[in-house]
Inverse folding.
């Protein structure tokens, strides 16, 4: 089920459409997307830059170097160099007809919205996701890898350096700032590590101030990437709500905990209400978008019982490598996280989640962007982390939604629904 009310142009496959996060309800064909190399106006369109195998002009291109490689005509099915491929390799920026930045990377777009109130770790979770999936290759054994896209926004890379190399804390996203992104990253999903026939997706990430996620109107007006996303990661901020290291020596009153729990519950409710409005369904249980609810800043939570949030990724990956069905392993981890959340006092929120969403489209995970606490450095008036920051649990959260979306494990080619690109040698 694709998002409703999106008009399309005949002859363009749905996967080739570009969704603009700032033009809610619209999708654009590649020939409507302008490509810029500087601010002096568009130089071409996205359609003219798409390689023959996935673009809409796939057979019409002059393959000028084919003759150099294979002689006139070339060998059927052999890889070849094409003029278009060289044209593509410039530092383009792409804009929709309204002038908004959009992603022009190859691959099936997979918008992943990270949502949560102010200070819930959204801005740290985005570099954490890249660190775990790309730098640490956390899901390589399952054939899932993330890498740099051809065209990318440098801001996400800069945030990675700030947090993980320089040990800095990112500033709160200002309410005045527009939606940040899309940050495009190449997400390859194969059946095994290094699968040459892996399906290529363009993972699209955005950031926005938590204040813009507080009402239905705010979300639709200022964070519409959330309503066109293929999956959601919803962050639950444990501070004040659950026992955490942020409590310090303070003994928080029952009233403080309840107020924080109600704020988290209301955040879940507004997401559910927004989705059911935009999808025009009578209940958010009918919204076909996978969601992973993440207990954020998991390093700071004072966990009880024998649940160990730090081992969940390994437990799932080891179970999968032992031949246990991946969905079963993920559900086991999600159930254990849900139970631990209940044990910590999360009933009110778990209830709201389960009343609002179809249980088959929801998972629970625990994650930390840093596995370290922030500290004020009194001398310089700056904040930093208590130890070298490293992420944990973010890749597992992404794996949950990829699994719920039916993308992992990857389907066999003969069960293909037409969205999977051809193996590379067919492109000639
Ligand atoms: N212990 C711990 N603290 C974290 C973690 N991530 C973020 N923090 C703390 O939480 C604060 C808020 O994190 P942000 O990433 O700025 O939160 P945000 O959701 O982007 O907030 P807005 O931009 O205001 O919407 C940071 O300044 C850190 O002090 C984490 O993984 N562990
Ligand atoms: Mg932020
Ligand atoms: Zn737009």
């Amino acid at each position: 089920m694709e998002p409703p009310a999106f008009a399309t142009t005949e002859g363009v496959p749905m996967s080739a459409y570009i969704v603009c996060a700032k033009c809610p309800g619209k999708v654009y064909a590649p020939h409507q997307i302008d490509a810029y190399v500087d601010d002096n106006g568009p130089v071409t369109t996205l359609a003219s830059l798409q390689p023959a195998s996935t673009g809409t002009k796939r057979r019409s291109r002059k393959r000028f170097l084919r003759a150099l490689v294979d002689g006139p005509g070339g060998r059927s099915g052999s890889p070849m160099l094409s003029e278009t491929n060289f044209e593509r390799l410039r530092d383009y920026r792409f804009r929709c007809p309204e002038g908004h930045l959009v992603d022009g990377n190859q691959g099936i777009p997979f918008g992943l919205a990270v949502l949560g109130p102010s200070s819930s770790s959204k801005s740290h979770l985005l570099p954490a996701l890249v660190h775990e999936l790309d730098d640490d290759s956390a899901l390589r054994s399952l054939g899932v890898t993330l890498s740099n896209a051809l065209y990318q926004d440098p801001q996400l890379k800069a945030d990675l350096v700030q947090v993980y190399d320089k040990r800095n804390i990112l500033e709160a996203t200002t309410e005045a700032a527009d939606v940040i992104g899309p940050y495009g990253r190449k997400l390859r999903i194969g059946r095994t590590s290094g699968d040459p026939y892996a399906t290529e997706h363009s993972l699209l990430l955005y950031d926005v101030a938590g204040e813009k996620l507080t009402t239905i109107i705010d979300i639709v007006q200022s964070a519409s990437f959330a309503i066109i996303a293929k999956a959601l990661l919803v962050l639950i901020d444990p501070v004040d709500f659950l026992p955490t290291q942020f409590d310090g020596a303070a003994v928080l009153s029952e009233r403080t905990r309840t107020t924080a729990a109600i704020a988290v519950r209301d955040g879940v409710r507004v997401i559910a209400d927004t989705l059911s409005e935009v999808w025009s369904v009578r209940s958010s249980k009918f919204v076909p978008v996978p969601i992973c609810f993440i207990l954020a800043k998991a390093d700071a939570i004072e966990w009880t019982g024998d649940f160990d949030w730090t081992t969940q990724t390994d437990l799932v990956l080891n179970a999968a490598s032992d031949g246990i069905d991946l969905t079963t392993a993920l559900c086991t981890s999600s159930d254990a996280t849900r139970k631990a959340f209940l044990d910590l006092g999360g009933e009110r929120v778990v209830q709201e989640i389960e009343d609002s969403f179809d249980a088959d489209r929801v998972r629970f995970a625990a994650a930390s962007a840093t596995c370290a606490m922030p500290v004020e450095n009194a001398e310089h008036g700056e904040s930093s982390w208590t130890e070298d920051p490293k992420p944990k649990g973010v890749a597992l959260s992404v794996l949950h939604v990829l699994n719920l979306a039916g993308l992992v494990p990857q389907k066999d080619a003969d069960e293909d629904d037409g969205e999977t690109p051809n193996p590379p040698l067919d492109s000639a």
Observations:
- Residues 20, 22-23, 96, 98, 100 surround zinc ion (ligand 3) (CB under 6 Å).
- The chain is about 30% helix and 15% strand.
- The mean pLDDT is 85.
- The longest strand covers residues 180-189.
